[in-house]
Sequence to fold (275 residues):
Amino acid sequence: MGYKIKKGILYILLILLAATCMFPFWMMIVNATRSGNEIVTGFTLIPSTHLKENWEQVFQFFNLFKGMWNSLIVSVPATLLCAYFSMMTAYGLAFYKFKGNKVIFGAILAFMMIPGQLSLIGFYQLCTKMHLVNSYIPLILPAIAAPGTVFFLKQYTEASLSQSLIEAARIDGASELYSFHRIVIPVLSPAVATMGIMAFIGNWNNYLLPMIIINKNEKMTLPVMMATLKASTDINRNQGAIYLSVAISVIPILLVFAFFSKYIISSVSAGAVKE
Fold:
């Protein structure tokens, strides 16, 4: 009887926690259907009838779908580059013992502590000299260098990947690159999926760097386009449109999470050798 009571209390707490987490999303959806005056003057949990008006208001300022497409052009390649090269770097630091290994890893830790905003002026000057302003290349290629992702994957590699598995592949004649693609990547897929989601969210929501690099309206990413609503003179009238654009911008993030979640919950020891 006591076990059932504890189990019931646990379920109630989990339901309350889930409701707390979902509350901001529900409010975002509700406010996306309300007018700016309704949002400013009152609070409600019931959707309103101004969804079409907010939709039309958004497209008066920018093309929402064009902004999403531009953000996808940046986010998808940047995420793939971040995941692949961070995984390769982490694997090399974890399993290849060479002179300077610890120095390189220490440098990676040091770079994690340096705010990226400190290099914005120099980065913009470099992009100007290389004629990369209004290009997506400066937004994509720097994703290769992700110190935080490398640090996380290195710790995961050392804990999950068996050295004997790599040595067995070498004895069987497998090349280093073959072993990496066919053995290392499947074993590290849960960690890579986790960091891939974080990388996609970071690139999708990136506002500061695209605002500095991209000047042409047709190339602006979605966060920069959405800022035009907040910067308008009649911001109260645009509150509903702002919530609507934010609600739509969350959809790709939810889809990415749904796609990668099956890798996150997969066995950490998948493909590893049983000691």
Q: What stands out?
A: The chain has 13 helices and no strands.
